[in-house]
Design goal:
Length: 214
């Protein structure tokens, strides 16, 4: 299954999530690729949109190779053989500081919503290893939401099994055994810039304010 782009995939996902329309729920998108998807779903379901930040920890010899993921509260490590504890701790500190700064920019200084008792829908443009989403789930779980729903267009079979065991519900449009990268399942997988994320979050915030004023 190939999606035209993230927006098209998001419309398909919004249809699968229609039971949450105007419920006591919130969309949490993982920047950057998850934000265009989250924006469309939030608009279709008339739900608030926020971001949740998790960063991969790159291997010291190859930063593109992830040895784990870190959020502001959670740490998931998967392949640290031969890597010093000093490097890992240094990266955790650096990445958490960067995430704090990014969150302020993306959310325009707005503090995170209280998730207690809310249906929380975590979205991204796909799951490769699943480690980033897993860290998100563990991070959000600490806020005591009513449910954690993970919604993605595509996932590897290994990530699907991992996340299905961790989330309350997993909605995935396509699970692939032959999986090398999320981008292989999109015709248009153009880069989502920080500027695009900021613009979409500002538009979503303005829409939420307008709806409250009706």
């Amino acid at each position: 299954m190939i999606f035209h782009d993230r927006t098209y995939a998001a419309f398909l996902m919004a249809h699968e999530l229609r039971k949450y329309h105007q419920k006591n729920a919130i969309i949490l998108a993982i920047p950057r690729g998850g934000v265009p998807i989250g924006y469309t779903i939030a608009h279709q379901l008339e739900l608030p949109l926020e971001v949740v930040l998790v960063k991969k920890i790159g291997h010291p010899g190859n930063p593109e190779y992830a040895i784990g993921s870190v959020s502001s509260t959670e740490l998931i490590l998967s392949d640290t053989a031969g890597i010093s504890e000093a490097y890992i701790q240094s990266e955790i500190k650096r990445l958490r500081k960067a995430m704090q700064e990014k969150y302020k920019v993306f959310m325009n200084g707005k503090k995170p919503s209280d998730l207690r008792g809310k249906i929380t829908i975590l979205v991204d443009d796909g799951l490769a290893t699943g480690n980033t989403m897993l860290a998100c789930i563990e991070h959000v779980r600490k806020s005591h939401p009513k449910e954690i729903i993970v919604a993605v267009p595509v996932s590897s079979t290994s990530a699907y099994r991992k996340i299905k065991d961790s989330a309350d519900e997993l909605i995935c449009l396509y699970t692939a055994t032959d999986f090398s990268a999320v981008g292989q399942f999109y015709e248009n997988f153009s880069e989502v810039t920080n500027e695009t994320v900021t613009q979409l979050m500002s538009k979503a915030s303005a829409t939420q304010v307008a709806e409250k004023d009706k």
